[in-house]
Design goal:
Blueprint lengths: L2 H12 L4 H17 L8 H14 L5 H14 L5 H15 L4 H17 L5 H19 L5 H17 L1 H5 L7 H5 L8 H14 L5 H12 L9 H17 L1 H4 L3 H11 L5 H17 L1 H4 L3 H11 L10 H5 L6 H10 L7 H18 L4 H7 L1 H6 L6 H22 L4 H12 L7 H20 L6 H17 L8 H12 L8 H17 L2 H4 L3 H12 L4 H18 L6 H15 L5 H17 L1 H5 L5 H5 L7 H13 L4 H15 L7 H12 L10 H9 L8 H17 L1 H11 L1 H8 L6 H17 L4 H14 L7 H14 L4 H9 L10 H15 L8 H9 L6 H17 L1 H14 L4 H14 L2 H16 L7 H15 L3 H10 L6 H14 L8 H12 L7 H17 L1 H4 L3 H10 L8 E6 L2 E6 L2 H17 L6 H11 L5 H17 L1 H5 L2 H12 L10 H25 L4 H12 L4 H9 L2
Antiparallel strand pairs: 1-2
Helix pairs in contact: 1-2, 1-3, 2-4, 3-4, 4-6, 5-6, 5-7, 6-8, 7-8, 8-11, 11-13, 13-16, 15-16, 16-21, 18-21, 21-24, 24-27, 26-27, 27-29, 28-31, 29-32, 31-32, 32-34, 33-34, 34-37, 37-39, 38-39, 39-41, 40-42, 41-42, 41-44, 44-46, 45-46, 46-48, 47-48, 48-50, 49-50, 50-51, 50-52, 51-52, ...
Length: about 1200
Amino acid sequence: MTKGYLMNSLIEKMLSPDQDFRFMGLNDLMTEIKQDPSCFLGDEAVENKVLNQVLLLVEDKISEVKNQAVKCLGQLIKIIRQSQMETVVDRLIEFSGGQDEELRDISGLALKTITAELPPDGKVAATACEKLTPKLLGQIRNPSTPPEALVETLSILSILISRFPALLAGTTFDPPPLPILAPLLSHGRPVVRKRAIITLSQYVPISRPELFHEVLRTNVFPHLEDSANVEKQRTTVQLVAAVARHSPAQLAPVLGQIVPGILKAVQKDDDELREGSLQALEAILLRCPTEATPYLDAIVQSGNQFIKYDPNYAGDDEDEEMADVDDDEDDDELDDEYSDDEDTSYKIRRSATKLLAAIIGTRPELLIPTYKTVSPVLISRFGDREMTVRLEVWATYATLLNQTAVYGIPQGKDDIRKRKRDTETSDAAESPYSLLQSQVPSLSKALLNQLKSAKTPPATLQAGFSLLHTLLTVLPGSLSTQVSLIFSTSKTILSQSPTTTTSTLHLNCLSFLALFFSTHPPPIFAGSLSTLMPVLLKSLRERHPRIGSESFRVFSALLNALKPIKGADWIDSVYEQAVSKLSNHDTDAEVRECAEDCIADLWIGATETVRSKGGKEWESICRLSGKTDGAVKVVTKVAREISVGDAWVNGGVEWLLNLLKKAGRHGKLEMFLALDILLKSYTTGIPPGLAPALIAQVKPYISITDIALLSQALSILALLLKLTPRTTFPEVEKHLLLSIYEISHSSLLTANALDSLLSFYAALVQADNQISTHVVPNLVISVEKAPKAEASPANVAKCIAQVVKSQPNVAAGTIAEYSKYIKKSSKAKSSLVVLSLLIVGELGRFIDMSAQKDIFANAIDLFSSEQEEVRVAAAFAAGNIAIGNLSQFLLAIVRLAESDQKKRLLALHALKEVVTHCSQSQLEGVAEMLWAPLFQNSETSDETTRNVAAACLGKLATTHPSRYLPQLHVRLRESNAATRATVVSAIRYTFADNSQSYDELLAPLLVDFLSLMLDEDLTVRRLALSSLNSAARTKPHLIREHLSALLLSLYKETVVKPDLIRTVQMGPWSYKVDDGLDARKTAYETMYTLLDTCLAKLDLYEFLSHVIPGLSDDSDEIKVISHMILFRLAQIAPAAVSQRLDEATPPLEKTMKGANVTKDTVKQDLERAAELQRSALRAVAALSKVGLGVSLRFDTFVEDVKKNSTWGPEFRELLSAH
C-alpha cells in the first residue's frame, strides 16, 4: 500500500459521520506513525490535508474523538515540518484563548501533550521552544485571555522550561518572560497567581539579573513592609519560596532585605500568610544556607513558636505531652464540643515542623543547641491532636536522631572510648549524646503514651515503633525504664492477627523487639518476659512469611541476650516450631534461613535442652538440595561456639564433602571455612579415613583459575598436615604435590593465597623431615619451566625460605647451591641469577651470612649488571642479607648510596628492604646512620629516587619521632623544591604506622607539613594533598580541628588551572595535556576520604560546590570520584545533597548521553563511556531515593532514564536494591 493511498484512506475515515470511524481513523494514524514515522512524510499536500483533518477533530463534538486527536498530535509533533508545527501551535493557541470552554480545555490539553511529547534531542524541540514560547507569552499579554486559559498557558510554559532549560536559555525573547509574567502576581484569581508564581520562579534562572531585580523592586520589597496588604504579602512570601527553590543564587544577595520582612509577616494574624512565611523560611534555609546563617536564631524561634500554634485548643502543652490518649470518654466529649473540619491551624504547625526539620537536617554543627532549644519543644508536641502533624513531628525527631548518629559520634577509637565514658559518668561534658540521654525519659514516655491506646491507627503505631527503633540504634539500651509500657503495647499489637494493613506494623514491632533484646541487659526485661512470650510464640506460627522470619529473629536476639538458658518452657516451643518449618519443603526461603539461625542460637544458648532432643533438626538443615548457604553458616557457628561431639562433627564433614562435589563456585568459600572449624573441633582426633576422602575433594581446587578457593584449599591441606600428618602426608605427596609445585610460581598468588601456600609448605616439611630436600629443587624446576610472563620467582623464593625456616637443616645446602649462580664466574642464565638472588635475600633476612661475605659482595657487584631485573634482585638480596647482620653489611650499602650516583637508586632500594623488614629495636640502633645519607643529594634526585628515600625516612621517623620529626620540620623551608617534596612524602609514609605513640609530637607540626598544599611547585602540592589524604584516612583526629584552614587549600586544587594545560604535537595530530590533573584527582580522592572520617567538620554546602564541577571535569576518573561522593552523600547527608540536584542534573544528563560517535571513535572509547555511564547511573539511583520531589528537572531526568532502552532495566534494578 502506497503512502498516499494509506493517508487518503485514513482521511476518509476521519471524515466519516460515524464517530467510531473517526476514532478508528485517528487510532490507525497513530499506530502507523509509531510503527513507521516515514509513512506520514513524502507528499506535503497530503501531509497538510491529514494534519488539518486532525486539527478539525480537536473540535469534534464527541469527547473520545477529541482526546484521540490530542494523542495523535502528540505523535505528529515529533515528525512534522517546521511550517506545519507553526500551523498547529497557532490553531491550538487560537482555540485555547476562545470563549468555548470545552474547546479551550481540549486545546490546552493538546498543547500540554505536544510539549510533553517533544523529543529532548534534535531540532524539533529547539524549533518548538523558539516558536511556541513567544506565542504563549503573547497569549498571557492578551488582556482578553480568560483565567482558565492563563492557567493552562502557564502550565505549558512550565513544562517547556522544565524539559528544555538549555534551549530556552539560549533563545532571546522580545519581550522577555519575566516582565510579562510579573503582572499576573496581582491577578484577581488566586489560582492564576499561584500558577504564575511557579512559572515565574522557573524562568528566573534563565533571565537577566536586572529583570529579576525589577521584579524584586516592584513585587517583593514593597509587599514585605508592615503596611502592605495581607493578600499581597501572601503572594510575595510564596514567590520568595518558589524563587529560593529554583534560583537560590539570584535570591541570596538580597536576603538581607527579604528575611526580616518574612519574620515580621509570620507574626501577623493570618493563617495562610503564616504558613507561606514558614515555607519561605524553610526554602531559604535549604537553598541559601550561608546567607541565611545570620537569621538562624530568629528562624528557630519562629519554628518553636508556631509548632505549638493551636488557638482552637485550650490544653496546656505540658499536659498534652503527658495526656493519656486512651481516655475514650474525654475524646468523645471533645468531639461533641468541637469539630476540626474548619480548623486549618494544623497547616501552620506542620510547616513549622518542616522548618525545624530543615534546620536539623542541614545544620549538624548546631546539634548541641538543637538539643537544648528544639528537642524539648518537639517532644512536647509528640501528642499533637492532628495525626499528620504528629507524624511530621516524629519524622523530624527521627532526623535529629539520624544526624546525631552521623555527626554526634566523635570518630576514632579514642573518641569512642571517650563517648562511652561521657555517657556513663554524671559529670560528662555536654555532647549531643549526653543531651539526648538526659531527654530520653520524657521522650520515651511521651511517645509510648501515644502508642498504647487500642484506637491508635496502624500507620501511627508503625511510625512510633520506627522512631523507637531509630532511638535504640543511636543510643542502645536507653529504654530501660519503659519495659512495662513497651511490652504491653507490643502485646496489644501482636495479639491481633495481621492483616494487609497491619502486617507492616507487626514487622516493625518485631524488628524493634529484636533490637530491644539485643541492646538491653537481661535483668531489665527478664521478669516481664512471661507477659510477652505467648504473643511472640503466636507470631512464630503466623503464615505470613516475613512475620515468621522476623519472629525467629526476635528469639535469636533473646537467646543471645539470655544465654546460657536453663529450664525455660518456651525453648521447647521455639525448637519445635523451628524444626516444623525446616522439615516442611514449602517453607519460604527467608523463614527457613531465620529458622536455621534460630536453631544455631538454641544450640549455643540452651545447649543442654536442645542436646536432649536427639538432633532431628540437623536432618532438615543438612540437606544436599536447594539453597544451603544458611545451613553452612549455621554449622560453622555452632562448631565455633560449642562442642557438640565427634559424631556430629563427622556428620557435618561428610555433608560438606558431598556439597563440595556439586558443580559451580557458589558457597564454596563458606564450605571450606566450615571444614576448617569442624576439623579443629574433633576431641579424639581426626578419623583415619577422613584425610584421603577430603584430599580427593580438595584436589580440583588446586588451580589458579579461582585464587580465593585455592587459598582455602591450601589452608585445609596445611591444617590436615598439622592435625594428622601420618595419614595426610602420603596422600598429599602422591596426589597433590606436583600440582602445587606448578602453581607455586604463579604471579597471581598474592596476599591471603600466598600466605596459605607458605603455611602449606611449612606444614609439609614438618610432617616429613626428608621431603624438604626434594621440595626446594622441585620449586626451582617449576619456575624455570614456566613461561616468563606467568612466573613469579619472588613467590618461589618465599616458598623456599619458608621451607628452610621450617627445616633449618637444609639451610647450608640451599645457600651453597644458589649462591654459586651469582658469582662473577657463573655462566647461569639471567632468570636463574634473579631467582638465586631472591632466594639468598629471603634467607638472609633470618640467617646471618657474615661467614659467607662473598655472597653479599657478589650481590653488590651485580648492581652493575646490564639487565634491570638482575639489578633489582641484587638490591633486594643485599638489603635482606644486611638484615641478618646489620653491623657487618649495612655500612657498605650506606657508603654506596653516598658515593656512587649511578648505583644510588639501587642502594636506596636495598636500604628500603632494611627499613621495611627490620624490627623496631634493630632500626633504632641504625637510624642515625641512615638518616643523613637518605637526604643526600635530594635536591638533584629524580622522583623515583626521592620516593624510595622518602619511604625510608618516613619509617625511620617513627622509630625516634622526637629526634627526627623536628629535623623534617626544619627542612620544610628549604629553597629546593625536591627537598620539600622529599619531606612531605616522608610525612605521608609516617601515616602508614597506625601507632598513636608519636601523635602528640606530630600534632603541632602536621599543619605546617600540610601547608605545602600552597607550595609554588606542582609536585610538592600534589604530594602534600596525598599526605592529607593519608592523614584523613589513618589519623583523622590530628587534622579535624585544623580542617577549616586545610580545606581552603584543598578546594583550590579542585579547580582546573588553564596555565597548566599545554598542547602537545604528535605528528599531524595535537592533543592537550593537563599537568594539574594528578593533583586535582588527588584532591577529589581526599574529599571522598574526608566524608568517611571528618564528616562532622565539613560545611557540606561549600563541599558540594566543589563536587558538582567535578561532574563536568574533562577527566573521566574525576567524574567517577564525583559520582562516588554523591552516592555517599545520598546515604549520609540526604537533606544537603538533595538541595543541589538542580546543579548536579545537567552534567549527569550529559554523561548519560554517552560518547559522541565519530569516524575516529574506537571500541575502547565506547567501553570507557559505558563504564562512566554506569558510574553515573549508580549515583542517580542513590540520589533518586532521597531527592525525588525536590527538583523538577532531576525528576524528569530520572523518568527519562527509566524509559531509556539501554539503561532503563539496570537503573530499575539499582532502584529496587536495598
